Structures are given as C-alpha cells and as structure tokens.
C-alpha cells in the first residue's frame, strides 16, 4: 500500500497535470481499500484499523480535488467553445468578404499598359519619355471619376437604370477612367517621344479643346472606342445618363462633338 498523508493529498491536483493520472491514482486507492476490505474478515489489530481510516479520509480528500479539477476543466471547455464560435463567425465573415470583393475598388493606376479593358495595341504605341526630360508638375495630374456608391445607385430612377446592374455601372466608370488616363498620358508627353499614331491622337485631342474645357478633363466617344473594349451603343448612352444623374460628368456640346466632362 502506498504511503499517504493529509499534506500530500491536499496538493494532489497540483502535482498531476493530467486528469487521467488523477483518475488512475484514485483507482489505485480504491483497489487498495478493496484489498483491505477483503482482509477485514480477519480480525485486524487496532493500528491497522486506524490505517484503514486514514486511507479512507485521504481518498475522500482526493475525490474532492478531482471534482474541483473537473469543474475547472468544464469552465475552460465552455470558454473554448465560445471562442470557437466567435472564431468561426469571423472566418465566415472574412470568407464572405473575400468572395464578394467588388471589381471596382479604387486603386492606383500605375501605367496605361496595365489597365484592364485597355486597348493594349495602342498602349504599346505610347512611348515613355526620357528620364532626363520628365518634369513632375501639376499639369501631369489626371483626374479620375469616383465609383458609384450603392446608395447612389439605389437613388437612380428605375426607368433610367433599366437592366444595368451596380457592377456593370461601375465597370463603365472603370473604362471611362482608363480612357481618360490613356488620353492625358499622351497629352502630357512630349510630341517628340510619340510615334506617328500617338502624334495624330495628340493633335486630335488638342483640336477638340475649347476655352470652356481649359483646365478640365474630358473625353469623347471616339476616346472610349480607341482606348477600351467597351461598346459605345444605346446601352452605354443610358449608362452615361446615369452618370450624369449621379453628377459624375456633364455634357459640353460644340463643333459637332459631345464632350463628357468629369465633374
């Protein structure tokens, strides 16, 4: 029979890191007591009876410690389950955001040739200026149209929206921004750095400017056709009407052209 004492049983839970060890210890105690009870048919000396009482007392204390450890483990398990639910909810939210990232999120447009929807054949014709000739000025700033918010989209009359979706409208905004970026990239370059096709475009852009467009960014339908893959059809005209409604652009007519000015 193993040696026991009141002090050792008091700290039993602290010495055993695993509940399985505590359970085994209790099982050993019970087995020891069972053995003693089996021998109890024989008349035992007084000191042996006292020893049996000490063992029973030690077992009772050990069971109390065991119940205390089990209670602590239940509390910890409850907290872990709550944490698991919160983590699962966060994971689902993140996955939902990942699966529903809008294709029109604002981002920096580094170069014309990297623009989605850009006419890459033309982008290849736009030659970068020599580094020593590049000067950073306010003139090189290219204004872009802000994307339509969901609340703005919902405020557009249904007769005007037709079957155009929120994503399709902002896809058109992206195409217009691509055309504006490409156009003014050419205008901001020295004519000497451009090839023949880009030079013709540069001259066309200059001819389309008026005193009313000075300091403004605008495009015409030919720019959309030139720089993007977007079809300029009746549906696109409806989208332009929606953008005017949302105060993203305004029209300026003159000289047989309709200029779409960015607001």
UniProtKB/TrEMBL annotation:
A GO molecular-function descriptor: microtubule binding
Taxonomic superkingdom: Eukaryota
Cellular component annotations (GO), alphabetically ordered: mitotic spindle; outer kinetochore; spindle microtubule
Keywords recorded for this protein, A-Z: Coiled coil
Record-stated family: Belongs to the SKA1 family.
InterPro entries: SKA1, SKA1_MBD_sf
Species the sequence originates in: Amphiprion ocellaris
Gene3D superfamilies linked to this entry: 6.10.250.1370, Ska1 microtubule binding domain-like
Positions in coiled-coil regions: 49-100
Protein name: SKA complex subunit 1
GO biological process: cell division; chromosome segregation; mitotic cell cycle; regulation of microtubule polymerization or depolymerization
């Amino acid at each position: 029979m193993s040696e026991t004492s009141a002090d050792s049983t008091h700290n039993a839970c602290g010495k055993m890191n695993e509940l399985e060890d505590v359970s085994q210890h209790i099982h050993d105690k019970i087995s020891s007591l069972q053995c003693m009870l089996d021998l109890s048919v024989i008349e035992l000396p007084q000191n042996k009876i006292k020893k049996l009482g000490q063992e029973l007392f030690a077992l009772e204390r050990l069971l109390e410690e065991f119940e205390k450890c089990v209670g602590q483990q239940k509390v910890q398990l409850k907290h872990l389950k709550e944490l698991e639910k919160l983590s699962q909810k966060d994971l689902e939210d993140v996955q939902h955001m990942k699966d529903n990232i809008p294709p029109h999120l604002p981002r920096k447009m580094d170069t014309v040739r990297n623009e989605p929807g850009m006419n890459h054949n033309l982008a290849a014709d736009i030659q970068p200026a020599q580094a020593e000739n590049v000067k950073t000025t306010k003139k090189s700033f290219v204004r872009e149209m802000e994307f339509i918010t969901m609340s703005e989209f919902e405020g557009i009359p249904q007769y005007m929206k037709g079957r155009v979706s929120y994503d399709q409208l902002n896809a058109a905004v992206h195409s217009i921004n691509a055309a504006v970026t490409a156009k003014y990239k050419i205008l901001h370059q020295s004519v000497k750095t451009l090839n023949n096709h880009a030079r013709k475009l540069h001259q066309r852009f200059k001819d389309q400017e008026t005193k009313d467009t000075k300091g403004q960014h605008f495009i015409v339908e030919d720019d959309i056709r030139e720089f993007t893959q977007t079809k300029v059809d009746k549906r696109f005209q409806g989208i332009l009407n929606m953008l005017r409604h949302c105060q993203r652009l305004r029209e300026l007519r003159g000289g047989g052209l309709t200029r779409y000015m960015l607001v």
